[in-house]
Write a structure and sequence with these properties.
Elements (H helix, E strand, L loop, with lengths): L1 H22 L9 E7 L3 H22 L2 E9 L5 E9 L3 H5 L4 E8 L8 E12 L14 E6 L15 E6 L4 E5 L5 H36 L6 E6 L5 E4 L5 E2 L2 H5 L4 H10 L3
Parallel strand pairs: 4-9
Antiparallel strand pairs: 1-3, 1-5, 2-3, 4-5, 6-7, 7-8, 9-10, 10-11
């Protein structure tokens, strides 16, 4: 009986992992991640909270077997950090972390207030994929339609009597390049391909730049108070995700990097 129970538990865990893997299907999910944490309203308390979040994510990265590299660190005026940015390198790092983007709220007795009053602090977390800046233009022959025609000069006069001019259409994007300056069809095709690859490079670069800009715009739209998760140390202890309603009572365990339950709930529910 114990053996059957053990096998059932193993099957349940495998199905759970499979369900999580199915949720990691977006194009950017396999990328490494860039994490930016910024202290919000609340002065020294919020700067201390930002550093606590930095520690929490650093511990999660270590537990996951990923690696991190510090990019920027702006210390707080008295304690903590104003903002910190670091990269997380690992398979599907962005896919796992993407739903951590948002405002994180901490409620506790302030260690920086002599009167011992309860204090609410905010910090924003922003995660975006580390996009590959190197754009490789790989053109498949099956994606091309090549038309040949007679070259013509000004006034419609034929400059030659053979089909030496070449027009190449990249079917997936509709981008067209053509050349008719050379007498050789082979040479015109070679030049047209150069033009086509240059235009495809520019097309991909504009797409990448647009994606980066949209991510930065999204960062600016994060409003203080619209928290995605609350961490309460007083008057009771609880961490609650407001998108999935998932909560745990052991806040110290969460702050020590045990984020997988929250990450998995967000992935399974598609919260963003």
């Amino acid at each position: 009986m114990a053996e059957v129970t053990q096998k059932l538990e193993s099957i349940k865990k495998s199905l759970h992992r499979f369900s999580i893997d199915l949720m990691l299907g977006d194009a950017d999910d396999p990328c490494d991640a860039i994490v930016s944490i910024n202290a919000g309203a609340g002065g020294t308390d919020s700067q201390d909270w930002a550093e606590m979040l930095f520690r929490m994510y650093s511990r999660w990265v270590d537990r996951k077997g990923f690696t991190r590299e510090l990019i920027d660190f702006q210390p707080g005026d008295e304690a903590g950090v104003k903002n910190v940015t670091f990269s997380v390198k690992g398979h599907y790092a962005y896919g796992y972390m993407k739903f951590e983007t948002g405002v994180h709220r901490l409620v506790r007795i302030s260690p920086f207030n002599a009167s011992g009053k309860r204090h609410t602090s905010f910090a924003s977390v922003f995660i975006y994929p580390e996009l590959n800046k190197e754009i490789v233009v790989d053109v498949e022959d099956s994606d091309l339609r090549v038309d040949v025609f007679r070259a013509s000069g000004a006034g419609g006069q034929h400059v030659n009597k053979t089909n030496s001019a070449v027009r190449i259409t990249h079917l997936p994007t509709g981008i067209v390049a053509q050349c008719q300056q050379e007498k050789s069809q082979h040479r015109n095709r070679e030049l047209a391909m150069k033009v086509l690859k240059a235009r495809l490079y520019q097309f991909e670069k504009q797409k990448q730049d647009k994606k980066i800009q949209e991510m930065h715009d999204g960062k600016e739209n994060i409003a203080w108070g619209n928290q995605i998760r609350s961490y309460v140390l007083h008057p009771y202890q609880m961490v609650k995700d407001h998108r999935t309603n998932f909560e745990v009572g052991n806040i110290n365990q969460v702050l020590d990097g045990d984020l997988n339950p929250f990450i998995e709930e967000a992935l399974l529910s598609g919260s963003g």
